[in-house]
Amino acid sequence: MISYLQVENISKAYGENVLFENISFSLHKDEKVALIAKNGSGKTTLLNIIVGKDTPDEGKISMQKNLSIAYLPQNPVFEENNTVLEQVLRSTSQLTEIINFYHKAIESGDEKLIQKATEQMDIASAWDVDQKIIEILTKLNISQVQQKIKYLSGGERRRVALAAALIETSDVLILDEPTNHLDLQMIEWLELYLKSRSGTLFMVTHDRYFMENVCSAIIEIEDNTVYQYKGNYQYYLEKREARLKEMQANIDKASNLYRKELDWMRRMPQARATKAKSRIENFYKVKEQASKRIDNSTQVIDIQSKRLGKKILEIENISKQFDNKVLIKEFSYKFGRAQKIGIVGPNGAGKSTFLNIITGILKPDSGTIEIGETIHFGYYHQQGIKLDEDKRMIEVIKEIAEVMTVGKDKTLSAAQLLEYFRFDKEKHYSYVSKLSGGERKRLYLLTILMKNPNFLILDEPTNDFDIQTLNVLEDYLNNFPGNVIIVSHDRYFMDKVIDELFIFDEAGKIKSFPGNYTDYQDYIEFQDKEKQKQLKVSVSRPDKKPVEKKKFGFKEKREFELLEKEIEDLNQEKLELETLMNSGNLSNDELHEKSNRYSEILEIIDEKEMRWLELSELQE
C-alpha cells in the first residue's frame, strides 16, 4: 500500500496534562480509518497537528509531496458575512469564481448576466461541480445558498463546514465528529457517500454503526500506546477483547513473578552485590508490569430513583407551531411506567420543542399535559451546559449532593459516581476550565443524574461522548427503573437502550412504533417490499389464462408522445424550482410553497415515468 502520511513519535502536553506521548502510525492510499480514544486524550489536537493548525512538542508529521488535505474541524471558524455558497467555495480557483458568479447572476435576475455566466459555466465544464455542490447542500438540508453565515444556527453552520470539506477535491479527507448535528437520514446518506468516495479518509467518530459501515481500519490510542486494527468496528471489538485477555494473562504472570522476586528482595539483602544488579533492575520492571490494571469492565449498579406513582405523564391532543411551521399536530399519548422511548425525525421537525413542552419550558398552542405528582424530571439539553469554570470537578458534583442513592441501603459518593462515568481519580480535582468539550458534557450529565430524577429526558446526550462513556451510559439507562425519553441520532445507542420510538415528520405528525431503530428500519424495508409487490401485481394481469399482448395502437401512441412532452416539461419546472429555492430571494412562505410543489412534481414524474415504461414495453 502507498503510504500517504506518517505520524512519527509525536507528543503533546499542556502543562502537566499529557495528551499523548511518542505515538506513531501511518495512513495509506484509499484507507478509511477511524480514530478511537477516550475524551480528553487529545484526538482533536492530534488532527490539528496533522493538518498544520498546531505543533507537536516532539516528533514530526511526514507526508507525500503535493498531498492535498480537506479538513472538517470540530469547531469551524467562519467569515460571518460570507454566503453559504462563498463559504463552501472557499478555494480561490478559477472554477470556484465561475460557479460563484453564476449563482450571483441567477440571484440578480439579469438575463444578460445569466447568459454570460451560463457561457462561462459551459466553457469551464463547471456544471458537474455545481451539481455536486447543490446535491451535497440539499442532502444536508441547506437550501438557501445565498444566505449569510451569520444568520445560520449552530447545526446549520456545522453542516455547511461539512459540505465544504466534502466538496473539496483532496487526497486525504479528515473529519472530526462528522455525524454531529446530522439527523438519521443525513447520517445514512453520508455513510453511502463516504463509502463510495475515492481517496483516504481519517476521522474521529463515536458513531459505532457509522464506523461499522464505513471504515476499513481503526486506530485506538490507549495509555499512550497505538493499536491498529485492519477491519470494521465488529472486527475491532473482537480483536480488542483478545488483546485485553492476553494483556491480563501477562499481568497475572508478572504478578506471580513479582511476589517471588519481592520475597527474594526482602530475604536476601546481602545478595545485592554486582552479580545481583541485573536481577534487581528486572525486579522493578516486573513490578511495573504487575502494577498495571485493565479497566475494561462496566460496574453494574442497582439504581434506585424516586418512587413513581400510578400517573406518569398524559398528553392529550397537543399542537404547536411557530409562524406558519407546524411542529406538532394533535398528538396524544399516555405514558406507562419505566418506558424507554427514543425520538427520531429530521432536523427542525420539533423534537426539542416537544421535550420543552413536556418539561413546561414551552406551552402547547392547544391540548393538555398532565404530569403525575411523583414525577421528577431530569432534563439534559444541548443549551444547558453552564458550569462554573473556576470550580473543581468534584466540587461541582458535591454542590448537588455528597451521595446518590443507588439501591436499598446503598449509596454512591460523588467520587464514586465520577469514577463510574470514567473520570480517573487524578482528574477529580481538575478545574472545569481545563476539561475537554466531551468531558464537560459528561460532567453536566452527572449533575442531572446526581439529583436522582425518576423521569430522564436526554436531548442528544451522545454528542462528543467517547465509546467507553457511551457503554457506561447505556448500562446505566438499561438499569434505570424510571422513564426515559431520548433524542439521539446514534442508532447503535438507541438500539441498546430504547424499546419504543416516536417518529416525527415534517408535517407535525408523530407516530409511535413498538421497537428500536433497527426494528423500525426492518419494518420500513418490509413495507417498501410489499409496496413493490403490490405494484407488480397491479401492472400484471391477474388471469392465469394466457392473453394476447395489448397492441400499441393510435391511442397508446398519442398517450406515449404526450407523456414524453409532459415529463420534459415537469423536469424543466423541477429545475426552475431548484434554482428558485437556492436563490435566497424567497420568503419563508414562498419557500414553503415552492418546496411543496417540488415534492408534488417528484411524485407526478414518478407516476408518469412508470406509465411511460409500461407503454414503451408495448412497442416491443
Q: Look at the structure and name the CATH superfamily of the domain at 313-520.
A: P-loop containing nucleotide triphosphate hydrolases
Q: Number of helical segments?
A: 19
Query: Quick one: overall form?
Result: globular
State the CATH architecture of the domain at 313-520.
3-Layer(aba) Sandwich
- What distance lies between the first and last C-alpha atoms, to the nearest angstrom? 50 Å
Fraction in beta strands: 15-25%
What is the mean predicted local confidence, pLDDT? 83
User: Could you name the CATH class of the domain at 313-520?
Assistant: Alpha Beta
Name the assembly state.
Answer: single chain
Radius of gyration: 30 Å
Structural class: alpha/beta
**Fraction in helix:** 40-55%
Instruction: Determine the CATH topology of the domain at 313-520.
Output: Rossmann fold
Strand order, largest beta sheet: 5-6-7-3-8-9
Give the number of DSSP strands: 20
How would you describe the overall organization of this protein?
The chain is an alpha/beta fold and 620 residues long. It contains 19 helices and 20 strands. The protein has helices spanning 43-50, 84-88, 94-108, 111-124, 127-139, 154-167, 184-196, 208-214, 233-267, 277-290, 351-358, 393-400, 414-420, 437-449, 467-479, 491-497, 517-539, 554-581, 588-619, and strands at 3-14, 17-28, 32-36, 58-63, 69-72, 172-176, 200-204, 217-222, 225-229, 313-322, 325-334, 340-344, 366-371, 377-380, 403-407, 410-413, 455-459, 483-487, 500-504, 510-513. The strands form 5 sheets. Strands 5-6-7-3-8-9 form a 6-stranded mixed β-sheet, with helices on both faces. It has a 6-stranded mixed β-sheet with strand order 14-17-18-12-19-20, sandwiched between helices. α3 runs antiparallel to α4. The longest helix has 35 residues, at 233-267. The radius of gyration is 30 Å and the shape is globular. The model has no long low-confidence stretch (mean pLDDT 83).
